[in-house]
Amino acid sequence: MHDEMRPTGQGNRIGTDGSEDDSVVRTLIVDDSRETRQVLTTLATSAGAHVTGQAASAEEALAWLERYDCDLVMTDYQMPGMRGVQLVEAIKSRRPTIRVALISILDDHDLETGARRAGADWVLSKPVSLDLLEEMVRSAKSHGSRLTRGLADTLGGGA
Amino acid sequence: MATWRFWRRAGETSLSAAASLRAVVPSSGMERPRDALRPVDTMDGLIWVDPSGTIRVNNPRGIPGKYPVMVVPDSPYLQVSLNGTPITGEVVVEETDYIHVRTVVEPPEARAEVEVSEDGMEARLSVTYRPGARRALAPSTPANLLVLRPLVARIEPPRITMAQVRRELARTGVVAGLVPTRRIESWLANGDPGDWVVARGTAPRGGAGTLEILRPESLDGPWVVEAGTIIGRRIPDPARPGLTVRGEPLPAPPIRPAAAVQMGAGVGLMTHNTHLVAQRSGYVVADAHIIDVVRVEEIDEVGPAASALLVDGDLRVTGNVRGRRVVVSGNLIVGGSIEDADVVVGGGIEVAGDAARSVVSMGIGRYAQQQARKHIGRVVDGLYDLELTIEQLETEAGRALGPHMAAILPQIVSAKFGDTLESRSWLDDALLWPGLVWDREAIDAIRQLSRYLSADELARDETLEILLGVRGQLEIAAEGTVVCELPMGRNLVETRIGAFRQGRLDAQSAVVQLRSAHASYLEAEALLVEEEVVGGFARIGHRFKSRQLGSKERPETSVQILAKDGRIETELAFPGVAVAADSGRHVVEAMQVGLAWPPLKGGEEG
Fold it and tell me: How many helices (H) and strands (E) does chain B have?
């Protein structure tokens, strides 16, 4: 497993009570191109996401997801082995709450249709714009109460 | 009975005809004959106008002779009565009839009128003339039918005088702005009708001034001054009130600032606004749009620190910039390299070395506005989530939290609202950035946010209510311009950086030159790369040029041109490169030499 596949240095942000900080969008970057992973990491961070993992293939991404959690996956379409669309299907079937963006160097109507059918939340063409990523991250962030059971019990006990 | 011959000189139609007729009457001392000569073979009565203008009538000699007939035209200028009764048309007359003829004189007319415009700024004199006429019956030869056709003599109207014009001016109240009298007299002297402007008001004029810059003539290169130096002189042109033609005053408008030339924060007006004085030491920028004194700060190195380095003016760093946010309202010039830094500049940026893992943003006003709206959005989202979080907590606790809110709220915010706190910090810091002016209401809202999101204030009972109110203020502020750039003079440096690696370049309105770029996100109006762009994304406004795109390792490299008339050029493109424009997308599958897009040209496979 590549070092990049492990959660990045900051890991999942932890709140002061030991529970996770739901305000961040934990993001997994999947692309066989190292340069593209680096750029997407830079962009996602600029957009306000927290990149918690990187994978060089769909198979590596699925293995990562067995061990760690995230809110958003940004995946390439053309990769050796399992293609991006298949990865989308697999993620959506196992972890339907994870939002998935398929990013491709191509701009193909059939590709988009296939990706949407597989459950992709966004289908983007490279080069992706930062404005679009910011909208994606804002959309991927769950809105509403940020109360987790642990926190509710702790606070309710003290109240 | 003497035989008298009457004749009229050819062409004579005026009253002088009667006089000339009398002249040929033999002066024998005899009276004018009462009876006119008539052809011996006619029995008809005769009627004629004698030299004195009197109508004479002779009855017919006998039957079958006819009585004479007089035809009187219907004219307002000829009044004919027969035996005391006014007549017109055809009438039979006899010797004993008393025929009285009266001609009416048509008087000539000369008129001068002055009209003042509605705004009182112009008075026009209009002179019109109409000739009159005098009529008289011309002598005629005796005949059975006489049609009265008076001779008309023209009466010329008198010329309008200066005195009449003056009376008219006085009547209309025109007392100011009159044209010279001799000019009016020359118009009147011709005797022709006409229309002339005889008075003009004076429009009020606002105060203004010209600015004289006192740059030493012999100086070559930048003009560096110390604070307090007089760099310019304002030559005032005072305001002047106006006056209508009726002598009514018009107030001068308020003083306008000098057109188009703005003053930067580095200059100020002193000594009754006549001296332009450097408010700080630095170099003078004076062009058609702005006058300013720009400070130049020089330091050796910028090392890692949590707080941002803020410079109002230009910053020169001899060495490197590492691990810090640097915000410069002017130009940034770095002798070394930039690493792990976040750089925001208002002017240009020149880096002799490379930029690695750094974010470089150009256009401080644009950047600040974009980021401010983004962070305000995050704060607003966070405060909505906070409200829902508290509601859920109260629902699960089965009661209102009341006095416990003060203990709970700080914990919740700290644990779950890291993004909101991050954005609050960004907004707090950005209020201190140089070269910007913030919307007043946005400042108030951000300051309140900062205060009430602090641990101390979160512990107070009423804080949540206050925060929800601040949320509304922020939402309103974010709809408009939250922040913009202060006017500032700049001697822009060309933006040049060495190798740009694993970073982000945000230069949407700038032309940027790089030696190379690797695995980076690049935005610019135009990007000129000396060597290669390998990996990463480039979104360029008008022009992208690089000697090489991609590499033999085939990393994905995407370039998009946004303007319809934009252009991408490269000498060598490797597989894995995608170029996109309005006209479409092209993915390079085999190495290409000499690629220009659009339209796709060259593309010889290498």
Answer: 9, 44
